[in-house]
Design goal:
mainly alpha; about 170 residues
Length: about 170
């Protein structure tokens, strides 16, 4: 252990040790409070999940009685959920550009305009759209329902612009 040399402006080793002990005590206190909060959160989260799952189960049972496949319902809801997440991420991304200084913001807007806002225009986006278009026969029921739901929520023009086939949905 390195020796601490006393100087007029420096605490003695035992004084310095008391700072370390107090700092560590506070750190342990924080860790314990966070552990307790995490445990409480998990209990509440499980209760919410169970209540919603029970309600959804009833809806799916009613839908089944009326001849509606639960896979279709789940696929459409999953697609809507993904859309909401995507919209929130786009808003967050736009906020980052809006937070730039004037010159940088203008330049960023010019760059985005040059690139275009169409996801399917980029390499991975185009590949994903092409894969989905080419593998309709190979899709499982849920994937096919999600693709159909997304296609159904767009106009033919929007679908084509996103890189989908021109065929109507």
């Amino acid at each position: 252990m390195t020796a601490i040399h006393e100087r007029p402006n420096r605490a003695s080793p035992s004084e310095a040790g008391s700072f370390v002990e107090e700092f560590d005590r506070l750190e342990q206190d924080r860790e314990e409070k966070i552990r307790a909060l995490d445990a409480e959160f998990k209990v509440k989260k499980r209760a919410i999940q169970k209540a919603v799952n029970d309600d959804q189960k009833e809806i799916l049972e009613d839908a089944k009685k009326h001849g509606v496949n639960k896979g279709v319902i789940r696929a459409i809801v999953d697609a809507q959920k993904l859309k909401r997440k995507a919209e929130a991420m786009i808003e967050r991304a736009d906020g980052k550009v809006d937070g730039l200084e004037d010159d940088d913001r203008e330049f960023a807007v010019d760059i985005r305009t040059a690139l275009g806002n169409d996801f399917a225009g980029f390499g991975l986006g185009a590949a994903a759209v092409e894969r989905e278009e080419g593998d309709d026969d190979k899709q499982d029921e849920t994937t096919a329902a999600v693709v159909a739901a997304v296609k159904g929520s767009m106009t033919d023009e929007e679908w084509a612009k996103a890189g989908g086939s021109a065929a109507p949905h």
